TrEMBL record:
Name of the protein in its database record: 1,3-beta-galactosyl-N-acetylhexosamine phosphorylase
Domain (Lacto-N-biose phosphorylase central) ranges: 440-660
Keywords: Glycosyltransferase, Transferase
InterPro entries in UniProt: Class_I_gatase-like, Glyco_hydro_b, Ig-like_fold, Lact_bio_phlase-like_N, Lacto-N-biose_phosphorylase, LBP_C, LBP_M
Gene name of the record: gnpA
Pfam families assigned: Lact_bio_phlase, LBP_C, LBP_M
Source species taxonomy: Bacteria, Bacillati, Bacillota, Clostridia, Lachnospirales
GO MF annotation, one: 1,3-beta-galactosyl-N-acetylhexosamine phosphorylase activity
Organism of derivation: Roseburia zhanii
Leading EC class: transferase
Ranges of residues in domain Lacto-N-biose phosphorylase-like N-terminal TIM barrel: 5-435
Taxonomic superkingdom: Bacteria
């Protein structure tokens, strides 16, 4: 087994001897610094690659203070205020932290701000409002009892990630780091020269880890230094008059702040993206990739590798966008919160290698009294491991303060076990891919492949009651023997189903969101194309409110395909005669209740070809339906669990009409899974439970072995 390599460890100035000890113990071949830490000079001669975190947009307050007009900017929207007379004054910074943000009083408010009557949706003419610099208020001529907002530009006078780290780690003495706009010519020239000088002054650094390039995802704090708004996919902080004037010339129409603030939703991933916002993303990807390539070329000219952190200032570097590969990066590194976020990193093309930072970060919010870093590490690895077997990272590593990890009893032993299993995977697969089902599954939403493995998330692997029942679908898929595509409604109309590779479509989400599809479901070409696809033998799996849009007497526009609809109180007068029959291929492995998470209320079966497998009182939770030669499956919700992974796997094979194919490679216990590497004749059987499990292994439909697995064990067998 590989004893060394594929591992990056963090270090700090006071951890030289311990770093060297752990480097040998764990077989690390790379060392890195982190935000708030320093790479000790004594380690620069160590036998390992040295990573240095590099910030293009901060850690140069002298420059930022000398060029205040080129500090980064963000579009903000004020509170919604109700007018009670013919005039109204709105204090812009109410609810925002003035140490982080400062109103842009340099550029013309009448050109770049927008006042909107939110009762009518109309823009208030610029001659009907004025900005008062002395009070920081906008005075508006109003209609009594209408609500108003002001959308305005503000300077980011404290880098959001530095502010987050400052608060999280309780830093006391570190000065607030300003953040400057590298897109602007003067700062751009300065930053390039500074990078060249840095490369000269750091000859021992092998890998420059850009964190990231130019624009921070939206991370805004309130007056009490609490997170007010976090949108990991948000473009609100990628704006300035300089950038927006270039956008107007590129796109051919006038920019509006509303394209960014989006009624106060800030273009959340859950919003169906407007044409204007998609145009802005496209423009930013083009411009950011060009400039990022120039930074990467500088690094390469000094014989160093360029690595991008998929986080912090990653906006505009969409890794599944059309322009990402043009940047010429050697590597991408990102934080692995679960199987979904692991796949988000490992599936990236256009780089030489991918690296994942496993959790927990070595931060005091985890390594503290009441914290459970070992438990977090185990949970993180259980989810990441099953996905790594399908689409492996090339490397793993950790971040934070090494001292916290080394002093926590038993934690280093846990890391040692994780690293050992990670190396076993690479040794046994030998560059080959795991067996996949002989068909593809497509996840259908408004974002498609641009936001691959990012669907139904707010930001990085954060649990929310509203979404876990949907993210679970992707988490299950991340470790399945299934080739997953992410497609849009435009892809459907453009014939992506015609080549026969896709056998099952999954649509999962709440009505009105980008993930369910909203108005796309009253597009005649979309619904008829999918009906034809299923009628001819395809499969459709819906979770939550698939195809949902109230129109022409139906809520689920594919209610005929799904065999279900949702009672919106309009058809209470119509009797429904639903009865449960749980005997079905999908539930053959399942003992006990099925977990539907938050579920979906008032789902009733309808038509002539349905079978209800699970019910909640009088309403349905799991329904299958036959539609012509094809099949559909409806789930009220599907949070991640090993049991739900098995249910979804069976549902996919059923929907594809290929049930017999499922046991080509198979394990019986729902807490166990397998990955088969036909090239190397190796099978990995994993126990996803923290208790011992027994399971039978099937190869080509025949039982070949009974296995007794230890808690969390990964067993390699030959076939």
């Amino acid at each position: 087994m590989e004893q060394r390599g594929r591992l990056t460890l963090p270090t700090d100035a006071d951890m030289v001897e311990e770093t060297l000890r752990l480097k040998e113990l764990l077989g690390a071949d790379a060392l890195r610094d982190c935000d708030g830490t320093t790479m000790p000079d004594e380690l620069l001669s160590a036998d390992a690659k040295k990573y240095a975190t590099y910030y293009t947009t901060r850690k140069d307050n002298e420059w930022a203070k000398a060029n205040p007009e080129e500090i980064q900017q963000e579009y903000l929207i004020s509170d919604r205020i109700t007018a009670r007379s013919n005039t109204l004054r709105i204090r812009l910074m109410k609810g925002f932290h003035t140490e982080q943000l400062k109103v842009n009083e340099i550029d013309d408010p009448k050109r770049w701000w927008e006042v909107i009557d939110r009762t009518t949706g109309e823009v208030v003419p610029t001659d009907q409002w004025e900005y008062d610099k002395t009070t920081g208020e906008v005075e508006i001529h109003t209609i009594p009892y209408h609500q108003y907002t002001v959308s305005f530009l503000a300077f980011l006078i404290w880098d959001p990630v530095h502010m987050y780290n400052f608060i999280t780690n309780d830093w006391k003495d570190a000065p607030h780091q300003l953040t400057f706009d590298v897109r602007q010519p003067k700062t751009q020239k300065h930053v390039k020269e500074k990078l060249k000088q840095w490369c000269i002054e750091h000859p021992d650094i092998d890998v420059v880890r850009f964190t990231t390039f130019f624009h921070q995802f939206t991370l805004t704090f309130d007056e009490q230094k609490r997170e007010k708004y976090v949108e990991w996919f948000g473009y609100s902080a990628s704006v300035s008059p300089y950038i927006l004037e270039k956008f107007e010339k590129w796109v051919g129409y006038k920019f509006r702040p509303e394209f960014i603030v989006d009624q106060g939703y800030h273009n959340s991933m859950f919003r169906v993206p407007s044409k204007e916002f998609k145009d802005f993303i496209e423009f930013q990807m083009i411009e950011v990739s060009k400039l990022a390539k120039e930074m990467v070329d500088i690094v390469h000219s000094y014989g160093k590798e360029a690595m991008m952190f998929l986080g912090d200032h990653w906006i505009g570097t969409e890794p599944y966008g059309k322009y990402f590969a043009n940047i010429g990066l050697d590597a991408v590194v990102g934080s692995v919160g679960d199987g979904v976020t692991m796949r988000m990193i490992s599936d990236i093309k256009g780089v030489k290698y991918t690296e994942g930072r496993l959790l927990p970060y070595f931060f005091p919010d985890v390594f503290c009294e009441g914290g459970d870093p070992i438990g977090e590490a185990e949970e993180n690895w259980l989810k990441a491991r099953r996905a790594i077997l399908r689409s492996p990272l090339d490397r793993i590593g950790y971040g934070g303060y090494l001292k916290l990890a080394s002093e926590w009893d038993g934690f280093i032993d846990t890391i040692q076990h994780v690293v050992g299993e990670f190396r076993q995977i690479h040794e046994n697969m030998q560059g080959s891919s795991a067996y996949m089902a002989p068909f593809k599954v497509a996840v259908l939403n408004c974002w498609g492949n641009l936001r691959r493995w990012m669907a139904n998330q707010v930001h990085h692997a954060i649990w929310h009651r509203e979404i876990y029942s949907y993210v679970g679908v992707l988490e299950c898929l991340s470790g399945m023997p299934i080739d997953v595509e992410f497609i849009t409604f435009e892809d459907i109309k453009n014939g992506i189903l015609d080549n026969g590779e896709i056998k099952v479509i999954i649509n999962s989400g709440d009505a009105g969101t980008a993930f369910s599809g909203d108005k796309n479901w009253i597009d005649e070409k979309v619904v008829t194309t999918i009906r034809r696809f299923v009628d001819n033998g395809g499969g459709f799996i819906g979770v939550g409110e698939p195809s949902a849009y109230q129109f022409e007497g139906r809520y689920f526009q594919l209610s005929d395909v799904l065999g279900v609809d949702r009672e919106m109180n309009f058809s209470l007068s119509t009797d429904k005669y639903n009865e449960m029959d749980p005997e079905h291929f999908i539930l053959e492995d399942i003992d006990g209740e099925v977990d539907f998470g938050e579920g979906m209320s008032r789902i009733y079966a309808q038509g002539e070809n349905y079978q209800i497998l699970c019910m909640d009182g009088e309403y349905s939770q799991l329904v299958v339906n036959t539609y012509g030669k094809g099949h559909s499956v409806y789930f009220a919700g599907l949070p991640y669990s090993p049991q739900n992974c098995r249910i979804l796997l069976r549902a996919i094979y059923y929907a594809a009409g290929m049930e017999d194919e499922m046991k080509k490679f198979y394990v019986t216990n729902v807490d166990t899974e397998l990955a088969v590497f036909e090239k190397t004749k190796k099978i990995a059987v994993i126990n996803n439970a923290k208790e011992a499990r027994e399971t039978d292994l099937y190869v080509h439909g025949k039982k070949v072995m009974h296995l007794d697995l230890e808690p969390m064990e990964m067993r390699w067998v030959e076939y």
